[in-house]
Amino acid sequence: MWIRMRMRIENKALVLRRVPFRDTSWIVTLLTPGFGVVSAVARAARLGGRDGARGALTGFHLLEVELRARTEEALGTLSRVEILEARNRLPFMATATAAGQVLIEAVHRFEMPGDARGGEVFACLDSSLEALEAEVEPLVVVAGALGRLLGLFGHGWRVRDCVGCGRRERLRFFSVRRGGAVCEPCGLPYAHRLPEASASLLRALSDRSWPPAMIGLSREEMALLYRLGMAGLARIGTQELSADGTFRRLAGLDGFQEIKGYAS
After folding, report:
1. Which of 4, 85, 109, 139 is 20 to 30 A from 233 in CA distance terms?
2. End-to-end CA gap in the chain
3. Tens digits of per-residue pLDDT, 39-85?
4. Angle, CA 207 vertex, CA 201 and CA 63 arms, to 5°
């Protein structure tokens, strides 16, 4: 719960973005479980700030913050920041760091201030960063989390029946443009551009949870699940995530099946 005392706000938070402000400060964008995305000025944080604010705001830590503002509409000032759960190992694991940056960028681009689903989005991102800190396979974390985020953003996929004819049997392909599974009769004429989706991959797409739904998936299937998640985000946005290329390179995904455009 948020505590409001005139113009004072306290909540848990994750840092989504920092932008330099004047010579010594940052404007920080924070994800909170209560109100979604909020922004505040972190004064003198680039010089260290109060109580080590610079270190707290430059990692993947779970924070508790206090914001003060003259009015509810005004840009607030970050008056206090404390680390509730430190994630000190994550920045030193390159692939895990890139995976975390993919998820943070996805949330920053599509989560809106005051969104009623902010608590669920926060829980998804926080648990994903926690798993990366615990050295869970980054591809498992990011592929599963992208599916969960797509569902929370209201742009999930249809995988229980064919998006072409409604058939529930012989599902074999996936259409990025239509966001769902395609049965063999409907998909065979377009097999050259539709990625194949195994029964286990379709189960993972349907469940959108990890790791249970991803047990038994091959690395190739997890790579495709990740690319389908990225393609799904591209359907509701205008640009690819900038962290995507770095993660694919570090995770060794460039040799796996690509999603060829969004007309499929």
Report:
1. 85
2. 44
3. 899 988 888 766 678 888 998 999 999 988 776 666 888 889 999 99
4. 115
Domains annotated on the chain, with CATH: 3-85 (2.40.50.140), 90-251 (1.20.1440.120)
Alpha-carbon distance of 56 to 54, in angstroms, equals: 6
Burial class (CB in 10 A: 0-12, 13-18, 19+), 173: buried
User: DSSP secondary structure string, 179-214?
Assistant: TEEEEHHHHGGGTTTSPB--HHHHHHHHH--SSGGG
Q: Report d(CA 75, CA 123) in Å as an integer.
A: 25
Q: What DSSP designation does 60 have?
A: S
Distance between CA atoms of residues 122 and 244, nearest Å: 21
Kindly tell me the sign of the dihedral angle through the C-alpha atoms of 180, 186, 187, 190. Answer: negative
What pTM did the predictor assign? 0.87
The DSSP secondary-structure symbol of 258 reads P
Cα-based torsion angle of the residue sequence 130, 255, 158, 114 in order, rounded to the nearest 10 degrees: 40
| Dist. CA 262–CA 264, nearest whole Å | 6
Strands (E) in 73-186, as ranges, are 76-85, 171-175, 180-183
Which residues neighbour 89 within 8 Å (Cβ) at sequence distance 6 or greater? Answer: 133, 135
